Amino acid sequence: MIVSVLVEVNVNKINKTFDYNVPDLLKDSIEVGKRVLVPFGKNNIEGFILEIKNNSEVKNLKNISEVIDENPILNKELLELGKRISNENVCSLVSIYQAMLPKGMKAKKNNKVSIKTRDYIVLTNNNYDNFINTSKAKKQVDIIKYLIKNKEGLKKDFSSSAVTSLIEKKLIKVISKEYYRLNNDSQLSKLNVLNAEQNKAINSIKNSKKDVVLLRGITGSGKTEIYMHLIKECIDNNKEAILLVPEISLTSQIINRFKKYFGSSIAIFHSGLSDGEKYDEYRKILRKEVKMVIGARSAIFVPFTNIGLIIIDEEHSTTYKQDHNPRYNAIDVAFIRGKTHNAKVILGSATPTIESYARALKGYYELVNLDKRANNSSLPLVNIIDMKEEIKKGNRIFSKELLLNIEDRLNKKEQIILFLNKRGYSSYLSCPNCGYVMKCKNCDITLTYHKSSNMNRCHYCGYAQNNYEICPNCKKSKLKNNGLGTERIEEEIKELFKDARVIRMDTDTTSRKGMHEKLINMFSNHEADILIGTQMISKGLDFPLVTLVGVINADTTINIPDFRSNERTFQLLNQVSGRAGRSNLKGKVIIQTYNPDNYSIRLSKTNSYIKFYEEEIKIRKKLFYPPYSFLCQIKIVGKDYNITSKESNKVANYLRNNLDKEIVLGPSISNITRIYNKYNFEILIKYRDKNKIIKVLNELNILNQNNKLIKFEIDTNYISM
Ligand code: ADP
Ligand code: ZN
After folding, report:
1. pLDDT digits over 566-609, tens only?
2. For labelling alongside 89, which of 100, 104, 588, 698 has CA 20 to 30 A away?
């Protein structure tokens, strides 16, 4: 018996398998989809069995050393899915298979996360009457009586000397039982009765003949409630459901909402879990103990075998696309798995991507709308403040209106959210005399000043540097703060409103495990009046007492040079505004901007998604951007500027020669030229024929696999921002 093994060496970009001989002893445990340990070079490494066969063209095969898994870790569907993704995304097959598995399983065999067990004591099959009647050891008799009544008991709950004696007498024995680190048991309650609009929506979804439904519903319109009803029906039909949500919203409220109704029948995946927790959640699925999973991007790969429904909440979120290799998009994977299982895919959002909405209008997706808030609360009033005017009055950070409203809400004991998409204290330090700016020594980017640690950090590579007393360039002036970050806002607010209780949420305050949840709970319990935060607080949160949302600077996303910058700005403002006035209390949103006439900001005032879409689609058409084309980005990275530039030109020429109609742009030097001390060039392809582009890129990849001068990063469906 011979097996073809895909080894876990990522350096070989082509998906080559190696043949190994199977020693007689291991023959019975060989199955496709299991992992094995094989000799490779000087070492033993892990690999996946992809094929079992009788002959090999290679002579003198080595033996496999060990079979790792008791059961196949990747089933047939996932093995095939991986091949398709590897081809379409021009990335190595083994990297996809690794991405499909939770981290605990990827780890080397000898440091694999453990299965947790607890010891229980149980009765052996003896006659206990005699013992109970004659024994003088009261503790031991009590244990026996307890076990007769309860069948088993947690060993550590009993006196260990009594337990030991009973074991010696062979009256009881110890068994160990597995348990899961995360336990979802909680009080189960009934689902809400849907309102008329929701019922109409759910019927349209169920009656649709299309594979994909786009559920566009304003924030608070009750989309999540609809998901719950659909999932319940799916589970009642004995099928499995996957719900993907953006990573950020996962550690908080949405999980609790689902736990309330589905209790222990949910597995949960997000990056806040430990490896052990992930491993346990995965085992619940492998053992068919759960019928639904809520998770971030990678949960799309769970080994369910009878999927009835896949829901992607906040479908416009960029977190569904992995921004490093393998660059798969969980939404594309959902479409493939949906087809395989004949399961409906639902994309939900208040502000769908321009592409999704265009597809829905064209009839590729079923379009279902929810235009009212579920509890009849009205959308908040939105005021746009021109900061150019405020500056003239001397109001640099907060407009007068925002301050008055904050004060008013504090007096009324209502809550406030202040949003700024920039962590740190100020954007950067610079010299007012010579203009010197502190930059990262590895990357071509300004360092962000963090006051609490008095450090300047690179948000790309993490490089940190102390402050200078005076400008190191002209030695004449102190360095000065420029721009704004959340940390600075917090300080200013505490200064202005001395009695207000303030919480700040950004990557700096939430990096420790459990902090995210803790801060959300604190705010939820009204232990704070003002929540200041970055993008992380824009999604999915539901605080009934919040009646004011302030956007400190709406321009942070507009100024990013990217064709999606307006779309992102509109989405973000809509999302943040949606946090206000979700209960019977009326909400208000104050958006501060230097670009009040920009359409993405102007249309946020009236929450006019459709008007925004109509403006935006014109521009996309004119410039041949998605949905009129797909984008492929190729990054060429190298240590030497000249060599990298030359190689980039070679790549671009190759593409131009092989892709006639497509538009190949570049190479151009990246916005951030240098990251981690390497130079970055970019080539952009706007294409329509996906199959053709994939073929050419895979060929290009093979041609260059031994090119040591540069590294390639190919993104066949580039999303950006
Ligand atoms: P979305 O996901 O569209 O933002 P949610 O499903 O979170 O909307 O609903 C917004 C609020 O309205 C939530 O507090 C939710 O519990 C409540 N809600 C939604 N639908 C109903 C319903 N049919 N009955 C009672 N409350 C509902
Ligand atoms: Zn850096």
Report:
1. 999 999 999 888 888 777 788 899 999 988 999 999 999 988 99
2. 104
CA 460–ligand 2 middle distance (angstroms) = 5
Q: How far apart are CA 225 and CA 348, in angstroms?
A: 12
What's the gap in Å between 607 CA and the centre of ligand 1? 19
> Tell me: the pLDDT tens digits for 201-234?
999 999 999 999 999 999 889 999 999 999 999 9
Ligand nearest to the CA of 260: 1
Q: Which residues, in sequence order, are bridge partners of residue 504?
A: 532
Superfamily per CATH, domain 630-715: Ribosomal protein S10 (3.30.70.600)
The bridge status of strand 448-450 relative to strand 35-40 is unpaired
Sequence ranges of the domains in the chain:
2-105, 117-178, 196-259+296-370, 381-422+486-608, 427-482, 630-715
Tokens matching residue 49? 């069995």
Q: Which CATH superfamily is domain 196-259+296-370 in?
A: P-loop containing nucleotide triphosphate hydrolases (3.40.50.300)
Q: Kindly give the number of the ligand 1 atom that is closest to the alpha carbon of 375.
A: 12
Residues with CB under 5 A from ligand 2 (ion): 440, 442-443, 458, 460-461, 463
8 alpha carbon to ligand 2 midpoint, in Å?
30
Does ligand 1 have an atom closer than 6 angstroms to the CB of 224?
A: yes
- Look at residue 107 in the predicted model and tell me its pLDDT: 41
The two tokens of residue 362 are 């064209």
Fold of 381-422+486-608: Rossmann fold (3.40.50)
Q: Judge whether residue 43 has pLDDT over 80.
A: yes
Residue with tokens 């719900």: 243
Report pTM.
0.84
User: Which residue in the block uniquely carries the two structure tokens 């900001």?
Assistant: 601
**Residue 220 Cβ < 6 Å to ligand 1:** yes
